[in-house]
Amino acid sequence: MKRNTWQREAVRTALTGTEGFVSAQVLHSHLRDTGSSIGLATVYRALASLEETGEVDALQQDGESLYRACTQGTHHHHLICRNCGTTVEISADPVEQWARQVAAEHGFTQANHVVDVFGLCAACTALAAAGGQVAEPGRVT
Amino acid sequence: MKRNTWQREAVRTALTGTEGFVSAQVLHSHLRDTGSSIGLATVYRALASLEETGEVDALQQDGESLYRACTQGTHHHHLICRNCGTTVEISADPVEQWARQVAAEHGFTQANHVVDVFGLCAACTALAAAGGQVAEPGRVT
DNA sequence: TGCTAAACGATAATCATTGTCAAAAAGGGT
DNA sequence: ACCCTTTTTGACAATGATTATCGTTTAGCA
Fold this sequence. Notes:
Two copies of one chain form a homodimer.
Chain A: H1 6-16, E1 22-23, H2 24-33, H3 40-52, E2 56-61, E3 64-69, E4 77-81, E5 87-90, H4 93-105, E6 109-120, H5 122-129
Parallel strand pairs in A: 4-6
Antiparallel strand pairs in A: 1-3, 2-3, 4-5
Helix pairs in contact in A: 1-2, 1-3, 2-3
Chain A binds a DNA duplex (30 and 30 nucleotides) through residues 1-5, 7-8, 23-25, 37-42, 44-45, 63-65.
């Protein structure tokens, strides 16, 4: 059976306490920085497991996977700041319908879709306008 | 200045002669199989360069980048068979507008988006129904 | 034809992710 | 509370795609 370990709980908690999407590596660093002795492989395993159960969302950027705790239990998409990682969960019913229809029109079955919107959030837009530097993605907010 | 080499041309040609999305590694194998002496690093460089100029589209799947020659010069999206890689280029004006609007509503600027629909094409759907096996992605069609 | 900077190719290096395996510990039964 | 079985962990090795390095080749032009 599936067991409850403090490690899995620590990953869940750390992810919930994070505003935007983070990489497994960054999440692991943060856990270590806060005194946890959790291993890197375990973080990867926990994230994969949590993704399977639908407790966290994942997306791929620049060839690395980023994770975030879901606040909505239902299917949704994301509006992500490519500077600070701040994320807004958005529902997109028209897009869902469009995707289904396009797939059907071309005889495709078992359709799913990847829909993400990236941009600069209001704060980072102001920052950039003030001449501020853009930081690397994957950072914690 | 930018130079025209037979290597870059070979990559462009090989990609044009391919139906679906392919990985750099697979494309390289095919070029070698057809007698070319092109190097792997060069294939990567050519693909990156072609993507920059907008001549080819790229998407990320399972942590690897896949490439395909664009037939439309304008912005568009893809409907991709996750079994055989067959791809249909689709325009999605309603989605473009939706993305722009959602970004603006939340104060995001410089918005772009990732929109891809995956599924099983008609042929592969029939194949699967007949008990056929699904092959791995990244293969050439 | 000769020059020079861009492009190439072989290979080493990088980096995220996954596999391995002995040691630790969760859950249930006694 | 203790033991037993099985899952999970953690340190580290292995993998696999992509990128950097660097000496050699070559496209484009005088």
